[in-house]
Amino acid sequence: MTAENEFAPQIARLPGVDLSYREAGTGPVLVFMHAGITDSRSWYNQLTEFAKDYHVIAPDMRGYGQSVITDDIFNYYRDVLELLHLLRIDKVVLVGNSVGGTYALDLALLHPDMVTGLVLVDSCMRGYRNTDEKFLDLDRQLDELISLGQKSKAIELYLQIWLAGTGRTSADIDKTLYRLCKKMLEENYLAVVGGKREQRLKRPQSEDYLSLKIPALVLVGEHDVPDMHTIGERFSTSIPRASFQEIKQAGHLPALEKPAVFNNLLREFLQQNGL
Fold it and tell me: 28-32, 208-212, 234-238, 267-271: which range is least confident on average?
């Protein structure tokens, strides 16, 4: 059974966009927001596990999955907010990976009345400038490949940076997982490389993080790039009720690489905080 034939995507007709999402289960609501190189299929193991006890929802960003790319300027957290309004949901726990974590944090900061818990998984931080020279060099190589239209090579480099990560090569990654991530990148490539007009929000200040009263869990994969570890540590010290955990033998996508470990950490967080 795969994510294509279980938890089949549905289409939400929102103001200005048709957004695809996967949904299952009943109970307290968990919303899973995917990384910039994946889509809602990346949460298949979490949907399977948590639909037993929760109402789980995994939307696709514009241009990902069956969500369309639009010409208007948008912000993904607002799309998720509109989806929740459509589904008549007013309380959620947000789980966001990479840029999905950025948008989850946007929603938690701007609509604190809705968010009861926050899980930031190798999350990006608005306004943070990467400092690791090796990563910056790889990122420059990636930009060049994209500008030259070398899609296949760009996808391979994306997977090296954001799946294998630091201290590993693509050969170290489970072959089935590698094929899934490659497939998602190929199908979502236009959106991944910038085929969408996203509104950039201002960087949160220290007082914004301090305003968060909800429990938070910050997770970082052992093999993710060094700057993601720095960001994770900043989140864990800036958000008052945050705890931090490194997931061993995983990179930027630990929910995909180590689903059992990830699910145990998430369930423990939910149970400890009565969520």
Answer: 208-212
Phi, psi (5° rounding) for residue 150? -90, 75
Phi and psi based region of residue 149 (left: phi greater than 0; alpha: psi -120 to 50; beta: remaining): left
Q: How far is CA 269 from CA 30, 100, 117, in A?
A: 13, 19, 9
Q: Where do the domains of the chain lie?
A: 10-129+195-272, 133-191
pLDDT of residue 136: 83
Put simply, whether the predicted model's pTM sits higher than 0.70 gets the answer: yes
Tokens (6 digits) for 91: 């309380």
126 vs 228: which has the higher pLDDT: 228
Torsion angles phi and psi, residue 24, rounded to 5? -165, 165
Task: Supply the DSSP symbol for 258.
Answer: S
User: Are residues 163 and 251 in contact, defined by beta-carbon separation less than 8 angstroms?
Assistant: yes
Mean pLDDT, the chain, whole residue set: 92
Residue range 10-129+195-272 forms a domain whose CATH class is alpha beta
182: helix, strand or coil: helix
> Are the beta carbons of 232 and 123 closer than 8 angstroms?
yes
